[in-house]
Amino acid sequence: MTEIGLVVNDFEARDPAAFRETSAMTQAYALFAMIFAGSQFVGLVLGGFVKERIGWSGMTLVLGVLCLTNAFVLTLYTQLWFKSSIVRELRQA
Question: Which of 8, 24, 46, 60 could staple 19 via S-S, CB 3.0–4.6 A?
Answer without folding.
Answer: 24
